[in-house]
Write a structure and sequence with these properties.
462 residues; alpha+beta; Uridine Diphospho-n-acetylenolpyruvylglucosamine Reductase, domain 3; Alpha-Beta Plaits; 7-stranded antiparallel beta sheet; 18 strands; binds flavin-adenine dinucleotide
């Protein structure tokens, strides 16, 4: 994709459209918006704008569309597939100033938010009402970025991903038109579902300026358990049995011994350095959870677990969960001077043990540092592959492992990306995953954005 640098006249005109201080062509701002958390090469935008409201976004898009200037939305830049990197330069619209919670309707389990709200901050506020927004991608991510990537996380196995939590959206289209779609009802059969065209479209069809989100009730009681296994393959087999047993875990995560060693080193939690499955249960009473825990233990022991630590209380479990959420950053700290490629495949549960075994074999035969971190209940496997930044041979090996993992996932009916999105890195698998469906996606893109100004260079193969 050629780099398109915009005319200085456009820079002046854009500057005049927004209040002072909400526009920058300064190097440090351009650098901060040139890369996300992935290994994809950085690319600077020409200008960064921090819009304050939907009308401003609309005016900027009208101008950009008329002059064919690329526009890329920006939440907090925590993506792992190059999703917000402005590969064609142009304008980055950073939504961090549009960060207000507009209305909370606790009795309807709904909240109206601007796109720049960070989900951890939202959940902090919602706690007082006994509510939460379940998709928890871990990093400090914004609602706009979560919707655009259809992000999910550790609680998705029970609560679903971002797409399950959007009731209404206000979107600014490429031509500046402001469109509201969806209702506040908890169900509707009315018309073609535009909301779900925008969710997961990575800012290529329109920019989200407001969203009504569905919320869930905070669980009354929580209990956690850690099941330890001799090898990852046996642990993976247990996942299927736990899911089939009807226990409805709220989280079901598998970590390999390398991950556990990192957590122990940083947090001193003293976990057994072996494949561990973390299970979280939610319930309405302690006695109900105690009973469920007994069934869980039985299922885990029948599935070959060597140790089972039940009944971890809120505080201990909270510490463990914090460590789990920060694991990605701990791995980065563990390998200074190295880059990390995160594989993100998801497969049907029946194929999950096979994919986990493939991941293990790939790591063993390559002799690389690597970590298996898995949202196991969803068959979603991350393989974090580590290589020195200046070692092209190591990176060739890493790329080929990633490629083989994706092809294997597709072969068994899975997806190239369980939660991180297509961005730049997964474009090459779109045809294999979607077949003729990709042509229809391209037509939808053309309909919404005929001049190809919105986040160009993403999702669609060149
Ligand atoms: C350590 C770590 C752990 C992670 N774990 C997970 C995980 O468990 N699950 C998961 O799903 N992800 C995970 N991620 C990836 C990432 O955090 C999520 O994809 C997150 O949703 C990105 O949000 P963001 O605000 O950073 O968006 P950005 O990265 O800034 O942008 C994401 C995409 O959204 C677009 N966009 C931004 N704002 C808007 C808007 N208002 N309208 C339209 N498009 C917009 C951008 O153009 C881009 O295409 C992890 C990342 C890190 C670094």
């Amino acid at each position: 994709m050629p780099t398109l640098r915009i005319d200085p006249l456009h820079i002046e005109n854009l500057k005049a459209m927004v209040p002072t201080g909400h526009f920058s062509t300064g190097s440090s701002h351009l650098d901060l918006h040139a890369k996300d958390q992935s290994q994809h090469p950085p690319c600077r935008p020409d200008v960064v704008i921090w819009p304050m409201d939907r009308e401003e976004v609309s005016r900027i898009l009208q101008y950009a569309n008329a002059h064919r200037i690329p526009v890329t939305g920006w939440g907090s830049g925590s993506s792992l597939e190059g999703n917000p990197i402005p590969v064609c330069s142009g304008i980055v619209l950073d939504f961090s100033q549009m960060n207000r919670v507009l209305a909370l309707r606790a009795e309807d389990f709904q909240v109206d938010v601007q796109p720049g709200v960070v989900y951890q901050d939202l959940n902090q506020q919602l706690r007082h009402e006994g509510l939460f927004f379940p998709p928890d991608p871990g990093a400090r991510a914004t609602i706009g970025g979560i919707i655009a990537n259809n992000a999910s996380g550790t609680k998705t196995v029970r609560y679903g991903s971002a797409k399950d939590y959007v009731r209404r959206l206000t979107v600014v289209l490429a031509n500046g038109e402001i469109v509201e779609t969806g209702t506040r009802a908890s169900k509707s059969s009315s018309g073609i579902d535009l909301i779900h065209l925008f969710v997961g479209s990575e800012g290529t069809l329109g920019l989200v300026v407001e969203a009504t989100l569905r919320l869930a009730a905070l669980p009354v009681e929580i209990a956690g358990a850690i099941a330890t296994f001799a090898d990852v393959e046996t642990a993976a087999g247990a996942v299927f049995r736990i899911m089939r047993s009807g226990l409805e875990p709220a989280a079901l995560e598998l970590l390999d011994p390398a991950c556990i060693a990192v957590i122990n080193r940083e947090r001193g939690l003293g976990l057994s350095v072996a494949p561990n499955v973390f299970v979280e249960l939610h319930g309405t009473s302690r006695s109900h959870l105690d009973e469920t825990m007994l069934v869980l233990e039985e299922v885990c022991r029948e599935s070959g677990c060597s140790d089972f630590r039940p009944g971890l209380g809120r505080q201990q479990w909270g510490e463990l969960w914090k460590a789990r959420h920060e694991l990605g950053e701990m791995i980065v700290r563990r390998h200074p001077g190295c880059g990390i490629l995160v594989v993100d495949v998801a497969v049907p549960l029946t194929a999950y043990p096979q994919l986990i075994a493939t991941a293990r074999q790939e790591l063993d035969s390559a002799g690389l540092d690597g970590y298996i971190i898995s949202h196991a209940g969803n068959g979603n496997i991350h393989l974090n592959l580590v290589g020195p930044r200046d070692d092209p041979q190591a990176w060739e090996t890493i790329e080929s492992i990633s490629n083989r993992m994706v092809l294997k996932a597709l072969e068994v009916g899975g997806t190239a990306t369980g939660e991180h999105g297509v961005g730049i890195g997964k474009k090459k698998y779109m045809a294999a995953e979607h077949g003729r469906g990709l042509q229809w996606m391209k037509q939808i893109k053309h309909l919404f954005d005929p001049n190809q100004i919105l986040n160009p260079g993403k999702i669609f193969p060149d």
